[in-house]
Every structure is written in structure tokens, then in C-alpha cells.
Specification:
Blueprint: E1 11-12, H1 22-25, E2 42-44, E3 47-51, E4 62-65, E5 73-76, E6 84-88, H2 94-103, E7 113-118, H3 130-134, H4 139-142, H5 146-149, E8 156-159, E9 162-167, E10 183-187, E11 191-195, E12 197-200, E13 204-206, H6 214-217, E14 218-220, H7 224-241, E15 248-253, H8 257-270, E16 274-280, H9 291-302, E17 306-310, E18 312-319, H10 332-337, E19 346-352, E20 360-364, E21 366-369, E22 373-375, E23 379-380, E24 397-398, E25 411-413, E26 418-419, H11 432-450, E27 464-470, E28 473-478, E29 486-487, H12 488-502, H13 506-537
Parallel strand pairs: 5-11, 6-7, 6-12, 7-8, 9-23, 12-25, 14-21, 15-16, 15-21, 16-17, 24-26
Antiparallel strand pairs: 1-5, 2-3, 3-4, 9-10, 10-11, 13-22, 18-19, 19-20, 27-28, 28-29
Helix pairs in contact: 2-11
This protein binds flavin-adenine dinucleotide (FAD).
Organism: Ziziphus jujuba
Keywords: FAD, Flavoprotein, Oxidoreductase
Protein name: Alternative NAD(P)H-ubiquinone oxidoreductase C1, chloroplastic/mitochondrial isoform X1
Length: 539
């Protein structure tokens, strides 16, 4: 994994193999000796050692991690006096918390050093991933690099994979001291990061292993890479079918928001060249959506080549034949390699979830999976000690109202991987809207915690729901006007403006705003030109 520090002052001290046993000699409080000595790392027995050099020393020494013998380095923060905030995950929860921390006014000695860790080099504005398939946006607009977004801030960024966390803030181990070490994060590159405050915001991943064949043959649509793979396969199928009569068949499992938005986007892209078969276990689409959004979506889907298979669940997915050369892999490299190969066909076995329906089989060229997700939380180490994070039945970290993980006063959790109920006891949905609002509170509450002020309880404000239905179509139901749904091109513009406002930084917002305006102007000129041409040619 690449490691990128955005401020030159961040010094990393590589681990020296000869120093394997140093952790035994200097078990803790290296930080107390000054930044330049805060460098040790360990690797011993069969596990990786973490040195936790907290000022309190209560958790100092070696923590064994259950990995093979691997080099580790202790990250040296630029300043050994200022609080250290480590944010895991740079999505709506993590990135926006970092930006919120940056925007707050701090007393000089208390402004924390903020380190953001993400496995990817891009922040991804997931609600607009569909527009990559329709060609309405360019990747840089909805997936800008962290290095660009954070260029004018003091936030540090590491591109690395989070492996595990060793918290030490539970059970009052660190006492009341404000800046004592809260624990250690271990990254895949071998880097160990001590923190005073930790923010967990790793989001969730698609869950495909629910029916036989789904993990092997269906593509999820949750990340930038997923969107690129789907786009790649659509292009491959479009190229294969060019000039032929046969239709492209796309099977889409799930008709929640994601499934319906994908169905609308892909059916518009394929037009008469393909059919989208959208399968849902419920007898309706988007069962939890406001009725206005659902009706608008049904209208659009029925006007396109979308076949709704409602009241069915998918029992299995198999591949037709066994042409090894065209084995579809979910690895990007393999996908690229398969470009000139024959495209496979898949068979979905559908079982009725309702009485009166017959079992079905469905043949498809491409299977997309939008059902279910799995919250992502780092593994906790060492495993044999009671450092656990309380999880709900879905596997999300349970937090109190201030967004701190229950039992862990130094760990905040937000977004898809966290669980909180609203005042009426309903679990908050895993949406960008929730994560975005939580980031505001997490940033503020970190400020309050560091400055010894009272923390605020998070209150979610539902602003309404939006969905894209194509290049010039959307449905927007604001929560503040009962019964109103804005549809069609106006809804589409409203949604785009709402998302433009939510892009992460002013600079990025401005660049994207100019780009979208330019594209709109070019599209308008093209449309006027084509109308004029038609009028003049009398057709
Ligand atoms: C296609 C799609 C459309 C959506 N549309 C909407 C919508 O219209 N409205 C809405 O409100 N919500 C929508 N959502 C949901 C919304 O995107 C999520 O709820 C939101 O992104 C959650 O924010 P988060 O910070 O918890 O996670 P994310 O935004 O997913 O960020 C998590 C980050 O953690 C990183 N990460 C994960 N694991 C590791 C690791 N081990 N090491 C390092 N980094 C890691 C990831 O790279 C990612 O950058 C949509 C989601 C998808 C997939």
C-alpha cells in the first residue's frame, strides 16, 4: 500500500530488523523522551508487537498481534505535545470529520494533529456512482484524490489498509488525563499509530455470500472499483452486440434505492439494445421510500425496458457452460485481461416468496447484486483480552448519543459501521445523510472532549430522500413539505445542486460546479443545434 503524508513534517522511522527485541528493553513511554525517539517497532515470536508508548504508561509494552512475523514501525507524530486524532476511513463519516476538525477554532496548544487513513487514494461520493455509468460525471468530480482535497489543510493522509486496533481507553485504564494515549492502530504496511482519540468510519461492504454463486458471478455496486467493473462489462457487452439483433440481458438483484437507481441508469444506457430484469423479494420496489419517490420510479421503469420480478428471491446463480477462457473474475486485472474473450452467460434460479407465483429461471449476461451489506470494523487486538467493541445484531458498533463507542471514551464511531437509535427508538439508516450529519457532531464532540467541554447528543434531521432515474430524471421528496415530490428534469437539477453543495471542500465544489455548468451549456447548444437541423431539413 502506498503511504502518503501530506505534510512534510510527518517523520516516519523505518524499523530496523536488529531492533526486534527493543520493545522488551523500552516497553513504554518512548513518547516522553521526545518525538525523535518515538520510533520503535517490534516483531517477535509469531506475532507482531505493538509498542504503545502512552504518556500514562498503563498500556505500554508489547501487545501481541495475531499475524505472521512482520516488520512494524511506530509513526512519529509531528508534534509530541498536541492531541493526536486518528481517523480510520475517509468516506462521508471520516473525511467530513477531518474537515470539520480543521474548520473549528482551537486554542493554540490544543489544535489536534489529525491523521486520516484510507485504503484508497480517492474519496468516493457514493450517491453519484450511477452517473459514472451514464457518463454524466467524470471520475475526478465524484472521486477526487484525498491529496487534492486535503492540500490546503493540516490533515495528514495515509493510504493504507487498517488491520487492527489495540484500544486502551476502556475500563478507565488511562484515568482522567486529557492527552494520555488512547490506544494503537496497526496498518497493513506495518505502521503503528498511537492515538489519543480514534474515529471509526470504515463504512460497510457489499455482502454477496448469501446465496450460492453470488460471490463468484455477481458484481456488487458499492465502490469506485465496482462502478468501473460494471461499466467495463457493459461496454464489453455493448461491443459484442454491436450490429446484432440479440439483446443484452442484465439481472439486477434487489429493488431498494440502489437497485432501482441502477435499473433506471442501465436501462436508459442500453435503450433498445438490452433488458434489465430487476428482482425483489418484496412485492414492491423501494418499500421504505416515500410514496412519491416510489411512484416516480415505477413510472420511469415502466417506460423503459425493465422487467420487474417482484416477490421472488434468488436461490442460486450458476454459469452456463464452462468456458475457462471466459471465466469472469472480480479482479480488475483479470477483467482487463478478459476483454477480448467471449462474455459468459449466467442462470439465476428464482424462487417465489409469495403464494401463487411459479419458480423461474432467468438467463443473463451480467448479474448485479445490491442486497445486503456488512459493516466494516477493525479487528481488535489482542484477541484474548476484553477490549471488545459492543456490536448490534447487524455487526455495527454501538455508540452513545455523543457518538462515542459504548465503554470506549476515546473512540468515536459513525456512518455505516456504527449503530445509534433516534429518539423514537428506530435504528438510524446507513446513509450518507446520516454519516454526513454525524461527522459534524463527531468533529464538534472531539473539540469539546479535547477542551474539557460537555459533549452534544447527536440528533438526526431527516432532510428527505432523493434518487436518480437517469440522465435527466430524478425524484426528490423533501421532508419539510408534506406530500411534495419533485420529479423529472427539475428533480434532476435539484438533486445535483443538493449534491454539489455537499461535496467536501469549497475548491472542489467550485471546480465541479464550473465543470457541470460547462457540460450543461455544451449539451444545450448541441440540443439547439440538432433541433435547428431537424427544423431546417423539414424532418
Ligand atoms: C451506490 C450507492 C449509492 C448510494 N446512494 C445514497 C444516497 O443517495 N443517499 C444517501 O444518503 N446514501 C447513499 N448511499 C449510502 C452512503 O454512501 C453511505 O451510507 C455512506 O457512504 C456511509 O459513509 P461512511 O463514512 O460510513 O462509509 P464510506 O463512505 O463507505 O467510507 C468508508 C471509507 O473507509 C475506507 N475503508 C474501508 N475499509 C478500510 C480498511 N480496512 N482500511 C482503510 N480504509 C478502509 C473505504 O475506502 C472508504 O473510503 C449510497 C451508497 C452506495 C454504495
Amino acid at each position: 500500500m502506498a503511504l502518503t503524508a501530506l505534510t512534510a513534517s510527518a517523520a516516519l522511522f523505518p524499523f530496523n530488523r536488529g531492533a526486534k527485541q527493543w520493545n522488551r528493553l523500552f516497553p513504554s513511554s518512548l513518547r516522553g523522551l521526545g518525538t525523535n525517539l518515538s520510533f520503535s517497532a517490534v516483531s517477535q515470536r509469531r506475532g507482531i508487537g505493538c509498542i504503545a508508548s502512552g504518556a500514562t504508561g498503563t498500556n505500554g509494552g508489547v501487545a501481541e498481534l495475531s499475524e505472521a512475523d512482520t516488520e512494524s514501525r511506530l509513526y512519529s507524530w509531528p508534534d509530541n505535545k498536541k492531541p493526536r486524532v486518528c481517523i480510520l476511513g475517509g468516506g462521508f463519516g471520516g473525511l467530513y470529520t477531518a474537515l470539520r476538525l480543521e474548520s473549528l477554532v482551537w486554542p493554540d496548544d490544543k489544535k489536534p494533529q489529525v491523521l486520516l487513513v484510507d485504503q484508497s487514494e480517492h474519496f468516493v461520493f457514493k450517491p453519484m456512482l450511477y452517473e459514472l455509468l451514464s457518463g454524466e460525471v467524470d471520475a475526478w468530480e465524484i472521486a477526487p484524490r484525498f491529496s487534492d482535497l486535503l492540500a490546503n489543510t493540516s490533515v495528514l493522509f495515509f493510504q493504507d489498509m487498517v488491520k487492527c486496533v489495540r484500544p486502551s481507553d476502556h475500563l478507565g485504564l488511562n484515568g482522567p488525563s486529557k492527552y494520555s494515549c488512547g490506544g494503537t492502530v496497526h496498518l497493513e504496511s506495518g505502521l503503528l499509530i498511537e492515538y489519543d482519540w480514534l474515529v471509526l468510519a470504515l463504512g460497510a461492504e457489499a455482502k454477496l455470500d448469501v446465496v450460492p454463486g453470488a460471490a463468484e458471478y455477481a458484481l456488487p455496486f458499492s465502490t469506485l472499483e465496482d462502478a468501473r467493473k460494471v461499466d467495463f462489462w457493459l461496454k464489453t457487452l455493448e461491443r459484442r452486440n454491436f450490429g446484432q439483433d440479440s439483446l443484452i440481458h442484465v439481472a439486477l438483484v434487489g429493488c431498494g434505492y440502489s437497485g432501482v437507481e441502477l435499473a433506471a441508469t442501465i436501462s436508459e444506457r442500453l435503450q433498445d439494445r438490452g433488458v434489465v430484469h430487476a428482482i425483489n423479494v418484496e412485492t414492491t420496489i423501494c418499500p421504505t421510500a416515500p410514496p412519491g419517490n416510489r411512484e416516480a420510479a415505477l413510472k420511469v421503469l415502466s417506460s423503459r425496458k425493465v422487467q420487474l420480478l417482484l416477490g421472488y428471491f434468488v436461490r442460486s446463480i450458476t454459469k452456463v457452460g464452462d468456458a475457462e477462457a471466459s471465466e469472469k473474475s472480480t479482479e480488475t486485472g483479470a477483467v482487463q485481461g478478459a476483454i477480448e474473450q467471449d462474455v459468459q452467460k449466467y442462470v439465476l434460479e428464482l424462487q417465489p416468496a409469495e403464494r401463487g407465483l411459479q419458480s423461474k429461471t432467468l438467463e443473463a449476461d451480467l448479474v448485479l447484486w445490491t442486497v445486503g451489506s456488512k459493516p466494516l470494523l477493525p479487528q481488535l487486538e489482542p484477541r484474548d483480552r476484553p477490549y471488545d467493541i459492543p456490536l448490534n445484531a447487524r455487526g455495527q458498533a454501538e455508540t452513545d448519543e455523543t457518538l462515542r463507542v459504548k465503554g470506549h471514551p476515546r473512540i468515536f464511531a459513525l456512518g455505516d459501521s456504527s449503530s445509534l437509535r433516534d429518539s423514537s427508538g428506530r435504528l438510524l439508516p446507513a446513509t450518507a445523510q446520516v454519516a454526513f450529519q454525524q461527522a459534524d457532531f463527531a468533529g464538534w464532540n472531539l473539540w469539546a472532549a479535547i477542551n474539557g467541554r460537555p459533549l452534544l447528543p447527536f440528533r438526526f434531521q431527516n432532510l428527505g430522500e432523493m434518487m436518480t432515474l437517469g440522465r435527466n430524471d430524478a425524484a426528490v421528496t423533501p421532508s419539510f413539505i408534506d406530500g411534495l415530490t419533485i420529479e423529472g428534469p427539475i428533480g434532476h437539477t435539484a438533486r445535483k445542486i443538493a449534491y454539489l453543495i455537499r461535496l467536501p471542500t469549497d475548491e472542489h465544489r467550485l471546480r465541479v460546479g464550473i465543470s457541470w455548468l460547462t457540460k450543461t451549456a455544451v449539451d444545450s447548444v448541441a440540443s439547439i443545434q440538432s433541433t435547428l437541423t431537424k427544423v431546417l431539413s423539414g424532418s
